[in-house]
Amino acid sequence: MLPWLEGPQGSPVGAGPPAERAAEATARAREEVAALLGVEGRDVLFTASGSEANNLAVKGIAWSAPRERRRIVVSAVEHPSVLHSARFLEKQGFALTVVPVDGTGRIDPEVFREALGEGTALAAVTAASNEIGTVQPIAALAEACAATETPLVVDGVAAAGRLPLRSRAAGASALSVAAHAFGGPSGVGALWVREGVRLTPLLHGGVQEEGRRAGTPSVAALVAMGLAARRTAETLETRRRRLDTLTAMLRERLAALAPPPILRLTGHPEERLPGHLSYLAEGIEGESVVTALALEGILASTGYACSRADLASPVLTALGFSAREARGSLTFTLETTTTGAAIDALVGTLGPILTRLRRLSPLVE
Amino acid sequence: MLPWLEGPQGSPVGAGPPAERAAEATARAREEVAALLGVEGRDVLFTASGSEANNLAVKGIAWSAPRERRRIVVSAVEHPSVLHSARFLEKQGFALTVVPVDGTGRIDPEVFREALGEGTALAAVTAASNEIGTVQPIAALAEACAATETPLVVDGVAAAGRLPLRSRAAGASALSVAAHAFGGPSGVGALWVREGVRLTPLLHGGVQEEGRRAGTPSVAALVAMGLAARRTAETLETRRRRLDTLTAMLRERLAALAPPPILRLTGHPEERLPGHLSYLAEGIEGESVVTALALEGILASTGYACSRADLASPVLTALGFSAREARGSLTFTLETTTTGAAIDALVGTLGPILTRLRRLSPLVE
C-alpha cells in the first residue's frame, strides 16, 4: 500500500499521470479480485466494506426490480448487513420472507423454492455463516431462483479465502466480499454484479465505478485488496488443507475434554467453513470464558464485531436455541498461521476454565 | 497511518486489546474532526468519502422526515452527490425544487426562503463550490430554514481546510467533509449530524458508528483524517492568508494577459474559496489547453474528478453560460505549498497557449 499513500494521490477517474497510474492500478486490482471470484473484472465494483457490498446488492437490485416484484426473500442466518437491508426495504413497502433453517443452520432448497414466488425482487443468502460455520447449498438455491428468474445475491464475505467462490457466483446475480476476510486491509470490499442485472446506486454522484458507486476511493486499499485476492487465489487449496488439518485437531482436542462433555457443536457437523468451529458451552456465559481466558493471556471475544454483545444471537435463535443457551456461544476461527502448539495451549487452558465455570454456574442443574 | 496498517488490525467495535486500541484511536480522531467542524465528537460519523457523507445526509434525513414533509430543496450549483441523491429521492416519491443562483453562483436568501414550504423534508446547500469557488451565505440560508424548521444539510467538502466550518455548522442540521480535501488520505470522510436530528442509515447492519453506518472501517484512514483535521484547525488562519496572497498574485498575472483579454472569471468576484480561481477562456476548448500545457510539462485537467468530461457542467449552465462557453472552463486550485515561481511559470506558459489556441479557434468571430 505504501507507494499509494506516499506522493501525489491520483483519483482513478481524474486526469494526468498520477490519475492514470491510479486508474491502471485500480484496473489491475479489479482483475485480481475478479479472478478470485471467477468472474469478469468489468462486472466488479469496489466498495468500502463487505457490509456496503451487501447493502448495495440487496437495495440496489430491489430498487431496480420490476414493479410487480415487491418481495425480498432472505434466510434466517444472514449477516445483519443483509437482514437489516431487507428490513429497511420492508419499511419502504416491500414484503419480506425470512426462510427458516434446520437445526444445523442449513436452508432446505425445497423450503426455499416454496418461499420464492413470481413476485420476488431478489433472494439473498450467505455462502457460509461466520457465526456457525455452516455452508449453504448455493447451487441448489440458485437453481430454485432460476426457475422463477429471481436474482440471487450471495453474501461471500465469510466464505472468501476459505472456499472457492467461482461455483458460488455461477448461478448468482451478485456476490459480495470484504478484503480483511482474506488477508487484505479493513475498509475495502467488492461486489460482483452479473452483466445485465440492473442495479440502482446506493451512493449517487460521481462517475466512479461507471456511475454505480460515487466517492473517491483509497487506491492503496484497492491495490492491497487486489494483491490479497491474487495471493488467496494462488494458495486456496493449500490453505484449505492446512485449515482442515488444524480444525480436525482442535475439534478432537475439544471433544476429548472430560468430564463432563460440556461443548456442543453448533452449525453443520460436516458442511462447514474450513478453519471454523462454533460451540455452545452449556450453562456457561461466553463473557465469563472471555474474561477467564484473558487472565491467562488468551484473547477471545463473544459474538463478532458486527453484533451487539447484549442481545441473543438471531442466528443461534434461528437454529432453535434459547436466548439462555445462546449466551454460551464460543467460536474458533483458525488461520493458516495457527500452530498445533497454539491449539494445545488453548485447549489446555480452556478445559479447566470450562469445568470450573460450569461448577459455579447457577444455570446448570 | 503506518502503525495501523502493520500488526493486528483491531475493529473499533471488537473485543480485546487490539480492538480497544483501535476504539481509542477512533475516538481521538472523531474528536479531532469535531474540533475542525466546531461540533461535538459524539455527533460525528465516519464515512468512506465526502460523497457518502452527502448521500447519507440527504437520503438519511429525507427517509426519517415526517410523512407530510415530502419535498427536497437543493441549489443549482450542488455537487453531484447531493443533486443526484435528491433526484433519486424524487424517483422514490419526493418532490424536488432546484433553487436557481445568480450570475455569480450565489443563492439569494429570499429566493431560497420562498422555495421552502411547510412540507420540506430538508434543504441541501454547498458551503462553497469546488467548480466556481463561490461561497454561499450559509448563515442567511440557515435562518430561512429555521423559520420553517427545515433541516439544512451543508456540503462542506470543498470548504474544509479553506474556510472556518464552525459558523457553517451553527445553523445547520448536518455538515459533510472529506479528508483528502484538507491533507488527509482518499477514501475517508465524515458527517456531523446535529443531536436530535433523525437519520435513517444508508448502510444497514453492524453496530459501528452507533448503528448509523455499518461496515468495518480502516482505522488507519480514520486516524489520518483526525491528524489532518487537527493540523488544519491549527493552521487555518495562516493557510488562508498565504492562499489569499497567492490567489491575488495569480489573478493579477492572468488579468494582465494581453492582448486580447480572453479569460472571464466565473463565480463570485469576492466571495470565493481561498486559493480558488475559475475562468472561462472564450472560444477555447479546455481539453486543448490541458493538452498544450501537458506538452510543456504542466499537469492540468478539465472539470473535476466527479464529473463527466463529455458533458457541459450543470453548474456553469446554472450561471447562464451556454454549453459551448462552458467548454472553455479553466480552474486553478492553489495550495500553501504553491510558490510564486510556479505561478509565474504557469502564467508564462499559459498566456501564449491561450493566444495561439484562440487564433486557431473556429469558435471566435
Jot down its keywords:
Aspartate Aminotransferase, domain 1, homodimer, 365 residues, seven-stranded mixed beta sheet, 2 domains, globular, alpha/beta, 12 helices, three-stranded antiparallel beta sheet, Aspartate Aminotransferase, domain 2
Would you kindly provide a written description of the structure presented here, covering whatever features stand out?
The structure is a homodimer of 365-residue chains. In chain A, the strands form 2 sheets. In chain A, strands 1-7-6-5-4-2-3 form a 7-stranded mixed β-sheet, sandwiched between helices. Chain A folds into 2 domains: 231 residues, Aspartate Aminotransferase, domain 2 (3-Layer(aba) Sandwich), CATH 3.40.640; 125 residues, Aspartate Aminotransferase, domain 1 (Alpha-Beta Complex), CATH 3.90.1150.10. Chain A starts with a helix and ends in a 5-residue tail after the last helix. Chain A has 365 residues and is an alpha/beta fold. Chain A is built from 12 helices and 10 strands. Helices cover 41% and strands 13% of the residues of chain A. Chains A and B meet through α2, α3, α4 and α8 of A and α2, α3, α4 and α8 of B.
CATH-assigned homologous superfamily of the largest domain in chain A:
Type I PLP-dependent aspartate aminotransferase-like (Major domain)
Task: Give the strand line-up of the largest sheet of chain A.
Answer: 1-7-6-5-4-2-3
Look at the helices and sheets of chain A and give the structural class: alpha/beta
Shape of chain A: globular
- Name the pair of protein chains with the most residues at their interface, and give those residue counts: A-B, 64 and 64 residues
Number of domain modules of chain A: 2
